[in-house]
Amino acid sequence: MKILMVASEATPFAKTGGLADVLGSLPPALVRLGDEVGVVLPKYRIAETSGAEPVWLAMPLWVGPHAYSADIHRLIHRGVHYFFLDCPPLYDRPEIYGTYPDNHIRFALLSQAALGIARDIFRPAVLHAHDWQAGLLALYLRTTFAGDPTFFGLRSLLTIHNLGYQGNFPGTAFADLGLDPGMYNPGGVEFWGYVSFLKAGIIWSDGINTVSPTYAREIQTPEYGFGMDGLLRDHASKLSGILNGVDYEEWNPETGPHQVAHYSASDLSGKLVSKKALLAEVGLPANAKRPLIGIVSRLADQKGFDLVEEIADWLADQDLAIVVLGSGQKKYEDMFRQLATVRPEKLAVRIGYDDALAHRIEAGADMFLMPSKYEPCGLSQMYSLRYGTVPIVRATGGLEDTVDEDTGFKFIEYAPEALRDAIDQALQAFANRESWTVRMRRGMAKDFSWNTSAAEYQRLYRSLWELQSRVQL
Ligand code: ADP
Ligand code: GLC
């Protein structure tokens, strides 16, 4: 089957988080299973697209009253057709997302271009949109392009990677989008006075899924629904959860990139070498007996670092070390910097984005901390399991679905005491080297490769396709 995905980031071209990992690994997994897959991405200034060749020059595109002419470049990578939308007035800027006042136009154009590519270059059976940045895809398909016979029978799927990001723009943005004025109402794209790209995707896509079964249930509750739980309950019959997979070519202690030493479940010696090297790299004392907790994360409210702040004094009194790599909200960057200044022998902090160091932390740390308030799937805890780096997580979303008592430590209530107890349990367990090693090996043996989940996506694409045949009959 031919699938065309639309997204705002994908490894190895442009990445800010796990969305990119998924767009870099699900498509090749589908190709291995026999599908043909294309992915449409903006060509940002920072995008690493060397080797991409122009396949269409000066494609005329419109978003409402705004007209553009864009070149389409293609790079075949791991068997996947990656299409880059080259439109310098919109994407040749310092940041991928930024706080640009025309972000609604930047990402509306992405959907328009994807439909242009679907018509003229790569004709799919299913259009697969990811997150709010591709939220208008199904809506444009069913409105602007409704009469286009090329698209007859085409079905659409929206994957929600994070309900916390909805692409809500001031109502004044509506006039820029080229939609029928009748759409701007609570039954359409209007969401509490805003134009919501994600809401459009939820309503107009033929199918919706999220990135773990638990999160698919959670987002239908007020606690996790970000105001859209009612809407999602209304559309529950087309909503499912498919756990993300891991790219074990990229995240693998035996062969992975950027590591100081490789190791495996049968020979863990390289892990100690990795730990010593990591302590030296980040300037922590060379005490390899002390447990080392790693954090690699976007520093956002979602990730639960306010709980860490509340137990900071207790943490500083424990016999451990912590290494943090992250960037995001200033308050968390400042918090970690401040803690590292006060306790430099316990805490090392790197603010920024560093893929190589992220790999070395997975390899060198003993434990990996993800106290998330909510976590649609989470990939880092799955990477940690494969690296024998025992995860300490809050039991929510994909963390609940991938970590269990045999492989990690979980806490339920979003409260500092609950986090403290989970870390305390992990520290006590670490003292018994033998049972700790058994725990590490149990995690390393888990298989979260894409094989299973990519096959689930195949089934979902095919069920959408069958639905379409039934509708036509
Ligand atoms: P999210 O997508 O919510 O950020 P995930 O756990 O799904 O969370 O994915 C996070 C991905 O981003 C992982 O590949 C992780 O290694 C990477 N990552 C996050 N922060 C950084 C950083 N500061 N430097 C390098 N990689 C990072
Ligand atoms: C989002 C979520 C994360 C998920 C990732 C990829 O960024 O926050 O939990 O793993 O998307 O689906």
Short description, anyone?
The longest helix has 23 residues, at 450-472.
SSE order and pairing:
Layout: E1 2-6, H1 18-32, E2 36-42, E3 53-63, E4 66-77, E5 80-86, H2 88-91, H3 103-120, E6 126-130, H4 137-142, E7 155-160, E8 168-170, E9 190-191, E10 194-196, H5 197-204, E11 207-210, H6 213-218, H7 229-234, E12 239-241, H8 269-282, E13 292-299, H9 305-310, H10 312-317, E14 321-328, H11 330-342, E15 347-351, H12 355-364, E16 367-370, H13 380-386, E17 390-394, H14 397-402, E18 409-411, H15 416-431, H16 433-444, H17 450-472
Parallel strand pairs: 1-2, 1-6, 2-5, 6-7, 7-11, 11-12, 13-14, 13-16, 14-15, 16-17, 17-18
Antiparallel strand pairs: 3-4, 4-5, 8-10, 9-10
Helix pairs in contact: 1-17, 8-12
The structure holds adenosine-5'-diphosphate (ADP) and alpha-D-glucopyranose.
Alpha-D-glucopyranose is lined by residues 17-19, 22, 161-162, 211, 244, 375-379, 398.
Terminal CA distance reads: 21 Å
> How big is the Rg?
23 Å
CATH C-level label of the largest domain: Alpha Beta
Task: Write out the CATH superfamily name of the largest domain.
Answer: Glycogen Phosphorylase B
